[in-house]
Structures are given as C-alpha cells and as structure tokens.
Fold these 3 entries.
Entry 1:
Amino acid sequence: MNNNHCIDAATQLWTRCTDLGLRSWLLDSTGALMRRPQDPSNPSEDDQLPPLAREAVRRKAAGADMQPIFVDGVALIPCVVGDRVLISCAAGTNDAPLDGLRTVILGMRDDLQSREESRVLLKDFSGKLIQSYEETYTLFRVMRLLASSAAPLQQINTVCRSVQQTLPFRWVSVCFRDDPRVVEDLRGAMSSAGAAPTPADEFERLVRTMTAETEADGWTRVLAPADHALAVIAGAELVCDPITYDGSVIGLIVAGNKTGTDREIGSPEMQFIDALADFLGTFHENIARLTEQRAMSMETLQALVAAIDAKDRYTCGHSDRVAFLAKAIAAEMGMCAEVVERIGIAGLVHDIGKIGVPESILCKPGKLTDDEFAAIKRHPEIGYGIIKAIRLLEDTLPGVLHHHERWDGRGYPHGLRGENIPQMARIIGLADTFDAMSSSRSYRPALPRPLVLAEIERCSGIQFDPAIVDAFSRVNLAGYDALLNQHATGEQPALRAAA
Ligand SMILES: [Fe+2]
C-alpha cells in the first residue's frame, strides 16, 4: 500500500485512539507534529511531546515499531502507519501492562490498513472496469458505425474520432494504401483524430510510409522513439496494427502519445487496437463485396435494359434517357447522392414490364385497340412482379409500379392522386413523358423542343407534380441531348452514365 493510502489510515487511527481516550500524537516522516491530543483543559501538556516524538521517529527508523519508550514515568508507544507515526501515551514503567494496549492499537491499525487497501483495490478495479466498459462500448459503437450507410471514408473519420475520445491517446490515425487491392472509396485515404504530432505534412508522410512498409504478420507493435521516426516527432511511444484483406496489408491504424498518469502503452490498449484493426479489415471486405455485387447487379440491369430496348427499335435508349433525366431532376430537388442514384436505377428499369407485352402491340404503327392499350397498361404491374424478386432493386418498386399515375388521379394502375403517388414515380413519370415526346416513335416523329416544354408546363398540376415541373425547368438538357444523339446514331453509351 502506498503512502497516500496510509495517510488516511494514520489519520483514522489517530481519531480512533482519541475516541478511546488515549492521548495520541500524529507525526509526519520528519517528526513534525500533525495532530495532537484533544485535551482543551490542559493545552500546554501537548508541547511536551516534540523531543520525545523525534526520539520515537528515530526508533521507528531503527525498526522499533510498537516498542514503548519510557519517559518520566509514562510509556509512549510508536505505531508506524506508512511514513507516519502515531504515538500513544500510557501510564506505567514496564512492558506487561502495555501489552493489552499495544494489541488494541495493532488491531485497529491492521483493520484500518486492510480496509484502506480494500478501498484502494476497489477503486482501481472500478476504474479499470469503467475503462474496459468504455472500450467495449466503443468497439460496439464502431461496429454500428461501420454498418451504417454513410460513405466509407466518412465512416472511417467517425470511427477515428470515437476511438480517440475513448482511448487515452492524444491522436489516432487510420491510413489505407494507394493500392488496387484497396476499394476505390478508401484507396490512399488517411483519417486522423485528436492532436496529431507536427509538422502535419511530415506526420502524414511518416504514417503513409509506415503504412506502405508494414508487413502482413498481424502483430500489434509498440514503437518507441528509438524505433521509428514517427515516434520521434511524437516524442512518445505509439502503437500500430496492420489492417489486412485477403492476407495482404491494405492499411494501418496507429495511435500515440498516451495520456494519463501511466504513459506506457500496455496490453489493454494493444488489444483494443488489435480488435479495431480486425473490424476495419472486415469493414473493407464488406465494401469490396458490396462493390462487386453492385457491379454484378449493374451488369444484370444492363442485360434487362437491353432486353427491353430490343423489343422496340423506336424506344432504343429510352430507359437510359429516363434514368438520366430522373437523376437530374432529383439532384435539382436537392436529394442526396444515394437517393439520386436509386432514382436513376428506378428510371432505368421503369419499363421492365414491357418484356411481358407482345412486340406486335409495342411496335404497332397505327392506333391501338382498347384491348391492345389494356395490354400495354399492364406493364407497370408486370414490371413490379419482376423487380419484386430482385432484392437489390426492391427500393425501385414504387417507381416501376406508379410511373404512369397522374397528379390529377387519372393515371394507372391505381389511379393515385397528388402526393399519394410516390415521389420517385412522379419524377420518373415526368422524365418518361418528356422523353416519349422528344424521341421518334413508331406512330409519330419526335416533337420540337419548344412544343415539348410548353406541353410539360401546361400539364403542371394536371398530369405532373408542379414542384417537379419546377425542378425540371432548371435542368440543363445538354447532357440529355447528347444521349439522344448517341442513341440516334446507334452508339451505346456506358450504362454507368445513366445509372
Ligand atoms: Fe412506362
């Protein structure tokens, strides 16, 4: 038990002895008087102690704990508590009557020291438990953060901040290699939180170099200034751990300048950093798989769209252009990039149900009969049935099913009105109509642009949501016209441009 803890035990022992009626003095390690007997009726008596106290302290140094000192017919019993000495005064000139008193004092001292030790142990344990809980909770939070739908680098930034606030480090950095094995969103990215060492450019250079040079042995390392230049500019130890993917190092997590009373990086911090590096490796793997899945689903989409376009040479590229316009309108309305992308994909597949409509009807040059028109009107529901089975596209379903609804409720298949029509479908509906009028069809040539724009404006609040007409009026149609020309000349633009 350290001396600070003994201070409390010594003071408490003095209080107990005083409560028992024992005249007691408490001295510090130099023999200076800290507490004197509480005897207001005879205050001058207290001054008799100092010479004797010094003698007691001298004896204590010689290992005479609890050995009485006889002075002028009284026994003074020194009791050592840490670096302090409690001196209790008892009458008598030989050891025998003092044994009982010594036993009582010793019992109290052991009891108090034991309690104090328990209290300190409990406090230490509580502190470690709280720290451990905070670290575990942070890891849990990191897992949740990494499962969010935010952009990967944004997620890494949030993780860095969260970890730096929990771990006793002045700074935490995560760096990814500029390597084709790293997913595009994180390739060469570096994120830091806290007060990183300066100069900043030198710090970044050293972290990047360390990331590039770290080997895939999976070890968590603690580096001192003697080991690495980064620890030199930090002026303290740092801990680092590689982030791996498919057995290769793709990045590094590094933290340094441990704060608090114990500046030495120990096992708990190393274990935390190790667990975090594992999480980040898994996070990267998930993104890589998701990217792969997206690429595969885009290829599937490409095949689906090609199948629709193949049914009617007049509508060639229609899906691409509707996707392009729907995205432009959504962006103009201030929607976030992710929603804009999903609306674009919905635009791409909005007419997928036409696969189920006979080509003889789709390509018929003349007027449709009622039955033929009824067959065409089934395509939103046919499309809904097709897309419903594709989990990756399920959020495009409202756009597929309702893109022929009208603001005035006279559309199909459900005759929805106004804002009851999903916004995605309202946007695609306008883009669909604009493109239908702007391109040649089997039954008529393309209409002039001023006429098309006037018709869209005229139908605001009738067929179209006025807010979407408003957003559409601000869209720059140069990109759309370029697509229209590409399709007219038979070029196939990259699908990515539309999706
Ligand atoms: Fe349609």
Note: Residues 98-146 form the longest helix (49 residues).
Entry 2:
Amino acid sequence: MKITQDIDTLINRFKKKDKVALAKLISLIENEPDKAHEVFKHFEGISHDSYIIGITGSPGVGKSTLTGKISKKLLEEGKSVGIICVDPTSPFSGGAFLGDRVRMTDISLHPNVFLRSLASRGYKGGISRAVFDISLLYEAYGMDVIIIETVGVGQAEFDIYNLAYTVVVVLVPGYGDAIQMQKAGIIEIGDMYNINKKDLGGEDIAVQIEMMLDDTTFQSGWRPPVSMTDAISGEGVEELIQNMWDHKEHLELSESINEKKKNRFSYKIKELISSKIEKLISESFINETKIKEIVDYAVDEGKFKIYRTIHKKFEDVNFEITKK
Ligand SMILES: Nc1nc2c(ncn2[C@@H]2O[C@H](COP(=O)(O)OP(=O)(O)O)[C@@H](O)[C@H]2O)c(=O)[nH]1
Ligand SMILES: [Mg+2]
C-alpha cells in the first residue's frame, strides 16, 4: 500500500518533468522489476515516441565523449535527450558513472538531458531489461532522442541492434584496424560508421570501410555512410547527426521504422517470457527445503556424491508444459 502511494507521488512529479522523480523511478524499476507494471500503467495514455540511437564500439574509442557532443548539439536545437551508458567492462560499479559524468559535464546539468550509467553486471533480469525499461521511462518522460552507449556488438550482454533504430559503429585510427572491423561485425550491424579521433588520422580506415561497403549489396536500399569526428573539438559531429536524421528519414519513408519498433518489442517479449519461465522453474524446484535435503544427504554421504544426488533427486521429476 505504502509503495503504491509512493509510486503515485513519484508519477505526479515525473509528469511535471521532475528529474529527481525520473531518477527514483529508474532505481525502482531496476531494483524491483516486478513493480514495473505498477509504474507503466500510469503512462498507458501516452503515445509519445522517442527516436532511439545506439552508439557502439570498443572501450576507449570515444563513445561517451561523442555522446556528450551529440547531445549538446541536440539540446541547442531545443531537443531533449535521455542517455543510457552501458559499460559492463567497467570493473567498478559506479566507475563508469563518474567517468561519463566527467566527459559530459557540459551537458549533465541541462534541464532537458538525463544520463543513467549501468556500470556493473548483475542487474535483476539483466542489463538488456534495464536498458529497455529505462528507455521506456524516457519515452514516457517525453524525451525526443534516446542515446544508448554500449561496448562492442554481439558480444555485449544484449544486442543494441534489437533496441535502437539507428546504430552508429565507432572506430578509431591506428592499431588493429582489421581487428576492429571484425569485432564490430562491421557490415551487418552498423547503419553508419564513424571514425572518431580524426585528429590522430584515420583516413585509411575510412577508405577500407568504404571499400567493404562498396562490395556489399544492401537490400534495405540504405548504404551506410562513413563519417569522421574529433569528439573533443566537436569537428564532424554535425555531419554525423545529419547522417542519423537521413537514416531516420529512410526508415520512415520505407516504413521499416514500424518493423524496427515491432522488433524492439518482440525482443522484449521473448525476454520477459524467458525470465518468467526461469522464475517459475526456480520457484518450483529451488526451494530451501529441497536444497537442505540435498545438502544433508550430500554431507552425510560425502561431498563427491553431490552430482549423483542432484541427478537422483531430479530423476523422477516430470516436466509438464501446458500450452495456453
Ligand atoms: N585525441 C582524441 N581523443 C579523444 C577523442 N574522443 C575521445 N577522446 C579521448 O579518448 C578517451 C576515451 O574516451 P571515452 O569517451 O571515455 O571513450 P568510450 O570508452 O568509448 O566511452 C578519453 O580520454 C577521451 O578524452 C578524439 O576525437 N580525439
Ligand atoms: Mg563510455
């Protein structure tokens, strides 16, 4: 009862664009996924869509710096921006948070921007759930643009391609260009490629990417553009933003934006179903009494019997799956 009242108060403040309420709702949803429906039911009348952009690339290529610069430009155009930084490689919980804040000091105090960093692993229901739910909250808040910054592609804990409408792959000049491209799963994943740190060179990698793109046919009719930026000075950032809008327009004109939206939801639904199943199974089988029985048996009979014990205990369990 108390919690419902708290949620109601928070929602009222949230609807008045109170950033503290937004922060509290994010924490609530992160920590208590089962309460998410209590929150989202208040937004059922809202039809606002944010445009969702994914920025991905290896650690250190300048994604956060770039995100800061892109956001700054968008803010200058009067747009609001919700940022989610996912850096599971960050060894300290909160470490990425501080780092990203420092890189985004220019903008983090602006009333129309909000930044959330997810630095550590081990979110209840996983990082992709947290990212999806935070982006849903940003949409309810009325953000014009959502930027999801994430390390790597494919190997990440979730696939940015299923969550964003436009994916920017960021690369840097210098070492291991070929490896960078392989890692980026380059041709399949990016809607555009951006070589950052152009103050350090990078013409050669741009040419390599252009050549790879020339050898590829794009059934969608969209040929990913290649841009170069210096995220520190901001040089080239406008062109990159223009490429994003061009891609958005392409998706809208070809009506594939709806496919993207559907894809986002089917990804989410599959994830919700598997987490429900996981919960059901663990609740039915992993209860403390059962564990105690197994422990007692294993300890009495010897630790090397633990595998055989578990095997035995579950031997006569029959799974019955009912289709509904
Ligand atoms: N020379 C140069 N350094 C950059 C540029 N963009 C970012 N950096 C630096 O690269 C480092 C990593 O940047 P960061 O944005 O944290 O990268 P992320 O790990 O991809 O988010 C920081 O020291 C930045 O100051 C750039 O365009 N040129
Ligand atoms: Mg970063």
Note: The chain has 14 helices and seven strands.
Entry 3:
Amino acid sequence: MIAGRYDALRERVLQANLALGQSGLVILTWGNVSEADRVAGVFAIKPSGVRYEGMKLEDIVVVSLETGEVVEGRRRPSSDTPTHLHLYRAWEMVGGICHCHSTYATAYAQACVRLPCLGTTHADTFYGDVPVTRALKAQEIENAYEDATGAAIVDAFKKADPQDVPAVFVRQHGPFTWGVDGMEAFEHALILEETAHIAHVQILFGASQTMALGYPNEGKLDKKLLEKHYMRKHGAAATYGQ
Ligand SMILES: [Zn+2]
C-alpha cells in the first residue's frame, strides 16, 4: 500500500478501534471510534460493517470536517459517521469520539435513565450525572437520522460543558463518549460501562432504596466529594498522575 497523507491519524484510529474490539464492550462489528485532526480539517473513523479482527490501516476511512466527504480510504465509513461529524463541528475542543452498545450503559440508555453520580469512581471522570438525550422527532428519524442524533446530543449539553461530563446516553439507543483523542474517548466508554455496572449492582444491593424512585439527592455523592475527586484529575490544580 502506498503511504497515505493521513497514515498517522489512521494508525491511531486503528489502534483505538482494535482496543475497543478487544475490550469486551462490543460484539461483532458493533461500535466505532474516530479521531479528528483539526489542523488538517479531517477525522478518521472505522469502516462500516468490518470486523475488528484483522482490521488494517487501509480499512480506516478519512472524512472531511468541512464537507463530510471521504477524502482517503476505499471503504464506506461507519453508518454513525454523520453523528461524529455533527459533534466535531459543534464541539471544537473534542478530538475523539467513541460509540458502542456495552451492556450496562446501553441498559441505562434504553431505560432513558440518567446515571447519577453515586460515588468517587464516577466523580473521577464525570463531573456530575451522565444525561440522556431528548426524543427525536418523526421528521428527524426519517431524514438525516444520524445527524439528528448528533443534534440531540448537543442539545443535552446546552447548559453543561461536554468536557466536564464526556459521555451521554442516546435515548433508547446507547452511549457516546468523547475525549482529547480516539483512545481517550474509548477509555471513557470503558469507565462509563464500569460506572453504570457499579450503580446497577448498588441498586441490587438495596443500598439505597430511594434510588429506584428516581435518584433523589440522598443517594448521590456529596457535592464536595464530587468536586474533590474530579478536580484531583482535571483542571489547573490536578494532582493525579506523574
Ligand atoms: Zn449504535
């Protein structure tokens, strides 16, 4: 294969998709990761309907952020590409996006239930509840459905910063997560799945009977603890890591 102009970006997107394929978050071809190169004005994304095993750099598709057209690669891009495009256009600070149908996160999405911040595992990554998107209008479902899904995600963050809570449940569908690059977007999908799993187990324990009635404040993490944990890893005064 002749070296392509976007090989470095495609390689990163390949590795993030392979990581997703091996993570246990997806079966078959479900799920996709993309990453944007803002300087080049493109993003690279998984091809549509291609298995993770044996996926190669040349399978990864490069799409223009301006036109939405494929600019490199012979495959058709993921069917969710218009959703990714919508988010990259709306949120300039986002560098990578991941979508999957992992079990617990998808259960929350299907139930249309926000994931409340119940503990510090959640607070380390998500600065508050993970929201659910609005319902799509019939017209949106009929025309440009995947783009409308992106619009609904953006609407869910009208009053919140998507960098503070880098995840959403698309109503009756599944989770989308994002980050500075594709690998971080994938890692946020992993964390979201684990956090949703923990919340589910907590409900089974009956640790908070009131939670089943709509998660009132009693069951939620103290605001000070939420801030403490989130700010240890994020922001100017972060102390976590090397
Ligand atoms: Zn999906």
Note: The longest helix spans residues 182-205.
